[in-house]
Design goal:
single chain, 341 residues, alpha/beta, Aspartate Aminotransferase, domain 2, Aspartate Aminotransferase, domain 1, 7-stranded mixed sheet, 4-stranded antiparallel sheet, 13 helices, 39% helix, globular, binds pyridoxal-5'-phosphate
Length: 341
């Protein structure tokens, strides 16, 4: 079975990351982040985002999201997020468990929300009988392969701040977003007013490791305690840090994000030639969501594993590209569709 398009998590580790891990494997150093690799990785984040940040490394994306939210919310508060967001549907209730908060979801056709989706949920502010919205959480690129541009992010941030809410961004694929928008990491986050970012490394080619970056520094003051209390303080931290040093220092997030997006665009162009394939959205980053005739899907599934979801309109299939996807992989997938069309 071929897993090339099942998820960007199905790809291996970028060779440059493997080298960085190997280099960090030399000798002894202090644990829990008191080491030169962590210092260098923090510096690499400062170089991207400026001095006004607090950054903490964690093991995985669910941990980054859950702890980022948990550290800024009180149990009577709530998070507003799109219905299909990872925190809402793919984290097995961890955000609810660790924050004790309600997650309020907004239905969306595109995976994105705007201020008109958020506004109706703010009616309850100041009423003691209702969970109090305190964070808006958006993902960029979204779980549906779409993108928020900087104006849209800024509008959400300004509106949220006007109403006393913070903005969290799930940036599991933030490198893909930066590459697709043609802007720096800072321009698509801190400069728009995002308060806290879950910064993804794994999907972009790291072996493991994500970061929580506070642009609203005060919110991050106690995060070190929160991270340990929340089981995400990695003892051999140097191995996460060395990866981040290389991932940011060599702008690997951008190269790899761009490559995955380019492959996705190529895939899209090929798929468009097949009659009967419908695109749920035009892909804007590294994920394609399509409906295809049942027979074609069955043939493709004989050789390729990919996820499909039942929706009101029928089955939607997700095809993901990664830093490791090659044109030949796409051509091979297309061979099945062409032979069976
Ligand atoms: C949007 C998004 N956020 C976060 C994550 C991170 O999850 P994990 O805990 O598997 O690293 C994922 C992984 O699929 C994701 O797609």
């Amino acid at each position: 079975m071929n897993y090339t398009f099942a998820s960007d998590n199905c790809a291996g580790t970028d060779k440059r990351i493997m080298k960085a891990i190997e280099k960090a494997n030399e000798g002894f150093t202090l644990s829990y982040g008191d080491d030169v690799y962590t210092k260098a990785a923090v510096e690499a984040f400062i170089k991207e985002f400026g001095n006004d940040i607090k950054v903490y490394f964690v093991y995985n994306g669910t941990g980054a999201n859950t702890l980022a939210l948990g550290s800024i919310l009180k149990p009577y508060q709530a998070v507003i997020t799109p219905a299909f967001s990872h925190i809402s549907v793919d984290e097995t209730g961890a955000p609810e468990k660790y924050t004790g908060c309600k997650i309020i979801t907004c239905a969306t056709e595109t995976g994105k929300i705007g201020i008109e989706d958020i506004r109706p949920h703010l009616d309850v502010l100041g009423t003691v009988h209702h969970s109090q919205p305190k964070v808006v959480s958006i993902t960029n690129p979204t779980e549906e392969g779409t993108l928020y541009n900087t104006d849209e992010i800024k509008e959400i941030c300004d509106f949220s701040h006007e109403h006393g809410l913070y903005v969290h961004m799930d940036g599991a694929r933030i490198g893909n977003a930066a590459a697709a928008l043609g802007k720096s990491l800072k321009e698509i986050t801190a400069d728009c007013g995002v308060d806290v970012l879950s910064f993804g490394g794994t999907k972009g080619g790291m072996m493991f490791g994500e970061a929580v970056v506070f642009f609203n520094k005060e919110l991050g003051v106690d995060f070190g305690y929160f991270r340990k209390n929340g089981t995400q303080l990695h003892s051999k931290m140097r191995f996460i840090s060395a990866q981040f040093e290389a991932y940011l220092g060599d702008k690997m997030y951008l190269d790899n994000g761009k490559h995955a997006n380019d492959m996705c665009r190529y895939f899209y162009e090929q798929l468009k030639k097949i009659e009967g394939i419908e695109f749920v959205h035009e892909p804007q980053a590294n994920g394609i969501f399509i409906k295809m005739p049942k027979r074609l899907a069955e043939e493709a599934l004989k050789e390729y594993f990919f996820y499909d979801m039942d929706t009101k309109e029928g089955k939607v299939m997700r095809l993901m590209c990664s830093f490791a996807t090659k044109k030949e992989d796409i051509d091979d997938f297309m061979r099945i569709l062409i032979q069976n069309k």
